[in-house]
Design brief:
Length: about 230
């Protein structure tokens, strides 16, 4: 579904991502793990068109999308749920969700999508007319994921969905990610909780100082000595 070859991203003289190769097959959950500053979020921003690559190629469903703007990439079927939620605080829950469907041509048929999001996150149904900025951190994260799903993505990019959440809510978020995947959405996941991320992923990539250092099936990565010491707290 997604093929990345020799991808590099620079911020001035800083080489944030260097010559990354990555593939994601349809139906997978793929986890991208690494320390803070390793280039994980920058990689997602390049895939979603928010940051222009300095080099390399990105293909989605056989089409080259390198350098496309963000709107075109959303229309192609890639949706990005960014780190820090970045909901619209002065808009209601429903208005935030509606903005997630901005690129869709069937805006008169959004109710089934609202119903789906509220099935995933029942608390949002109770908050539908509440301003986004008045929600708790966990509710805002649910809203951010729901907004990303409103564009009907084929590939969902999730950047740190459990950041700052209580353990019980983290467990709920990961259950929903698995449900979303089982229902047909491919997922590329960045997550500070490497154990949780690898536990639900099919495969994983480890980024270190902007480069892919290790890749393989998630079950194998969980038993890799370097990864256990560096990212799993052992």
């Amino acid at each position: 579904m997604l093929k990345v070859r020799d991808l590099s991203v620079h911020y001035g003289k800083i080489k944030a991502v260097r010559n990354i190769d990555m593939e994601i097959a349809k139906g997978e959950i793929v986890s991208l793990i690494g320390a803070n500053g390793a280039g994980k979020s920058t990689t997602l921003r390049a895939l979603s068109g928010l940051t222009k690559p300095a080099g390399g190629t990105i293909e989605f469903e056989g089409k080259p999308i390198t350098g496309w703007d963000a709107k075109a990439i959303v229309e192609a079927g890639i949706s990005h749920c960014p780190e820090g939620r970045q909901i619209f605080p002065r808009m209601t829950v429903l208005e935030n969700l509606e903005l997630g469907a901005y690129t869709r041509k069937d805006k008169n048929n959004l109710q089934p999508d609202y119903d789906r999001i509220f099935e995933y996150f029942p608390v949002l149904s109770q908050r539908r007319t509440q301003l986004g900025g008045t929600l708790s951190g966990g509710e805002q994260q649910m809203l951010a994921i729901g907004r990303a799903l409103m564009s009907h993505p084929k590939l969902l990019l999730l950047d740190e969905p459990s950041l700052g959440l209580a353990p019980l809510l983290v467990e709920k978020i990961f259950e929903i990610i698995q449900t979303i995947n089982r229902e047909g959405t491919t997922v590329l996941l960045i997550e500070q909780n490497a154990w949780q991320a690898l536990n639900i992923a099919h495969r994983g990539y480890v980024l270190e100082t902007g480069c892919v250092s290790i890749t393989g099936p998630a079950a194998e990565l969980m038993h890799n000595d370097h990864i256990r010491k560096a990212y799993l707290g052992e």
